[in-house]
Structure formats: C-alpha cells, structure tokens
C-alpha cells in the first residue's frame, strides 16, 4: 500500500480562471498578486514573482510558508512583506532568477476564517473531513498541484524545471508534494523531516495537516519518498530542532531509494533558517534546476 491508499478522495479541481489583482516592481523582479480556483467553489490568493529580463522560459519554485502558529501569516511572509525576514525565500529566489509562487495554505492568512483572522482553524478543517472519510492532507496536496498548474501555464516558466522549498510546515510538505505530483524536479525540506515514529511526544505531537488514519501502523516518511519519480531531495535539518528529529534516518533511506538524488545538510542549530542554510538550499536548487552553481549575488 502507498500513502495514497490512506489519503482518501482528493477534492475535485477546477479550471484556474486566474485574476491578477496587482503588480509591483520589486527591482529585480515583478511581484504579482493573483487569485485562482482550486476547486469548483474555492479560490485562493498567491504571490507570483517573475524575474526581469528572462532570456527564455525559466525554472520555477513553489515556496511553502511555515506554521509557527502564526495563522495571520502565509504568503506575505514568504515574499518578505511581513514576519521573519529569514522566511522570505520566495523573494530571494526570485532575485536569483527563479519564478516563484507563494500561496496561502488552508487556514492561513487570507484563508483563515476565524474571528480576527488569526485563530487555529486547522483542527476544524481536519475533523469535518475525517467524519466524511476525507483528509486535510488531500486538500493541501490538491492545492499544491493547482499552484504547479498555474506556474506551468505561464510562458515565463519551463514546465520541466519545477522545484519546491519549505521551512517547518513547508519542510514537511516538501517531502509529500513530490510523491503526489511528479512534476517536481527538486525539493528542499528544511526543519520539517520528523517521521511519525518520532512524533509521539508532547513536545511535537501531530500537525493536523498530516493526520492520515492508519498510515503509521506500518508506514512512515520513507514510504512517502519511495513514491518519488525522478525528484531530487535535499533534507536540510538542525541537530537542536525537535522538528528535525530522525533526519539522518530519513536521509539514509532516501539515499537508498534515490541514490545521488538525495542530499543531506545538517546544522548544529535550532528551528531556524539562517542565511547560510538558505544559501545551501538555493545552491541545491540552482544545480538541480539551472544545472549550475550560483555565482555572485
């Protein structure tokens, strides 16, 4: 059995029907705010950053935001408009020549329907699906694929060079997304590789988005990675980070499954995404998507 057998039905998609809400010149790139359909009755917003003066179709990266219990933040943090500057990887990658997309995950920023827009609605979104035989993860992965659909629909994007990057929550999604959508060429999972077997403790516990009833009775993240096609994976982890527990175990399994397409970057630090860590992640994406190492700033 694969994780898809536990995922439940994937929500129906829809034609994107993209609206461009704004365009802002950010110096080296243009940042667009767009709205598009992910289902028959659901539209979400995202930022798309397009570098200036592209010589032709360029590689693109799906940039997934963190969790941090900051439900008022999502896409805006990833493009550097709010929150922690160390989370602005969609902005930094656009400056390096990648087209980037940063949507809100369900329950965050413009997709948070709680009073005040900053409450945790994730467990409601999970429980109301579980009683119908569905999972929240199926919706989240459907949304990721819709973001890829949007990227590859654009003339600036090379559909054969699509990457993924995320920290924390985003780092977890970086492990699952390539198993669900084979269009990812490379994925960076930072500070989010904790397997189920290391999550049964009160200081970590389970995140609502990754509750798959019955999955962990005989499966774990290694079985998810086994579902990759040709995706290259960088597991980026910190020894003092509880969300990175088991990083070397997961990497060893990934190396056996993916060979030289699996890489590990291990740091003696906590739950952070510092400039040197991001630089290593960007070099991985440069090599796997551009076919070169980045030179210059």
TrEMBL record:
Source organism: Actinoplanes couchii
Family: Belongs to the AB hydrolase superfamily.
InterPro entries tied to this protein: AB_hydrolase_fold, FrsA_esterase, Peptidase_S9_cat
Pfam families noted in UniProt: Peptidase_S9
Protein name: Peptidase S9 prolyl oligopeptidase catalytic domain-containing protein
Peptidase S9 prolyl oligopeptidase catalytic domain location: 139-203
PANTHER family xrefs: DIENELACTONE HYDROLASE DOMAIN-CONTAINING PROTEIN-RELATED
Coiled coil: none
């Amino acid at each position: 059995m694969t994780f898809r057998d536990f995922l439940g039905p994937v929500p129906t998609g829809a034609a994107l029907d993209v609206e461009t809400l704004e365009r802002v010149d950010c110096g080296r790139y243009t940042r667009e705010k767009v709205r598009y359909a992910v289902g028959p009755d659901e539209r979400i917003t995202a930022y798309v950053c397009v570098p200036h003066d592209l010589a032709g179709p360029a590689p693109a990266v799906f940039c997934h935001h963190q969790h941090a219990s900051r439900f008022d933040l999502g896409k805006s943090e990833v493009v550097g408009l709010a929150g922690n500057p160390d989370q602005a990887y969609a902005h930094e990658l656009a400056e390096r020549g990648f087209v980037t997309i940063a949507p809100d995950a369900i329950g965050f920023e413009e997709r948070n329907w709680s009073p005040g827009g900053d409450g945790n609605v994730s467990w409601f979104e999970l429980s109301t699906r579980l009683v119908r035989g569905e999972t929240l993860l199926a919706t989240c992965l459907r949304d990721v694929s819709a973001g890829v659909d949007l990227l590859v629909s654009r003339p600036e994007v090379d559909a054969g060079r699509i990457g993924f990057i995320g920290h924390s929550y985003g780092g977890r999604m970086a492990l699952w997304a390539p198993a669900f959508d084979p269009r990812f060429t490379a994925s960076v999972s930072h500070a989010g590789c904790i397997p189920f077997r290391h999550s049964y403790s009160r200081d970590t516990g389970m995140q609502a988005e990754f509750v798959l009833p019955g999955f962990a009775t005989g499966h774990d993240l290694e079985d998810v990675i086994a579902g990759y096609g040709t995706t290259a994976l960088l597991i980026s982890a910190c020894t003092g980070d509880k969300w990175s527990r088991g990083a070397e175990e997961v990497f060893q399994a990934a190396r056996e499954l993916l060979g030289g397409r699996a890489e590990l970057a291990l740091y003696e630090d906590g739950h952070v995404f510092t400039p040197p860590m991001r630089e290593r992640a960007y070099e991985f994406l440069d090599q796997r998507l551009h076919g070169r190492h980045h030179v210059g700033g």
